[in-house]
Structure formats: structure tokens, C-alpha cells
Specification:
This protein has 150 residues and is of the alpha/beta class. It has one domain: 3-Layer(aba) Sandwich (Mannitol-specific EII, Chain A), CATH 3.40.930.10. Helix content is 47%, strand content 23%. It is built from five helices and six strands; from the N terminus they run βααβββββααα. Strands 1, 2, 3, 4, 5 and 6 form a six-stranded mixed beta sheet that branches. Strand 2 and strand 3 form a beta hairpin. Helix 1 packs across helix 2. The longest helix is centred in the first third of the chain and has 16 residues. It is globular and about 35 Å long.
Amino acid sequence: MITADLIIPDLKATSKKQAFRHLAEATVPIFGGNPENVLDALLDRERIGSTGIGSGVAIPHIKLKHVKKMYGILARLETPIAYDAIDDKPVDLIFMLVAPADSKTTQHLKMLAHISRLLKDDRTCSAIRSCCEQSKIAEVLNDWAKTQAA
């Protein structure tokens, strides 16, 4: 679901909306569509409730009609941003999940749970925060995945 080209190791943003805009612009070339539609979907989802899960982490998730498979996009922000997270702390890691509009809710929820487990692991988050390259962050993610398979 996530490959090195879906990792943004140095996202520059000063607000949640700006982070979403940059995420949309960076990822639309990968899964298609219009950046404004992706931005609107992210903002609409956020109006339902903040996707900031605490400890500097957010997991915005959207479903789009034109997307054919799930994509995970991990962004490490250069500077933490205000996000209205459940612990009121700023966010510096955003894992955006993009799924097909017709994907089964159970698939979507399983993937959110998997991402949540990943980002609730303090050691993994510390390792991601200390990396500045796509390939190094990809290694961290692969190492974590191996521990889950064991």
C-alpha cells in the first residue's frame, strides 16, 4: 500500500489546510484526479471530527470515486502544526489513507487499525521523525511490518 514514492520526508506547511493542499498536489499524480477535489474531501472529513490521534500523529482518511485501490501516504512535517488533535498537541506525522469510494467498510477499518498500530508505536515514530530521506523512512516501515508478521 505504501512505497517510497508515497513518502514525503519534509512536508512544509504552517496549517492543517496547507498540509492537506500539499498532500493533494503531491499525490494526485500518483492516483489521479484533481487536487482541489482531494483537498475538499480531506476538509469535509475533518469537519466530521479531527483525525489527529495524539502524540503528534494524524490519520486523515478519504474515499474517492476515481481511485481503484488503497493508497497510504506518509508525510513527515518539517515543523509541527496545530491540528485540533485529541490531545491538543501539534502534529508532525500525517498518514493519509485514500481508498476507492466503493471499498468495503471492513477493509477500510482494518487498514486504519493497521496504520494506527504503526503510529502508536513510539519507537517507530521516533525513527520516522529522525529520518530525512524517503528510503530511510521506507526501511523503518518495512522493519515494523516484519515485526508484525512474526
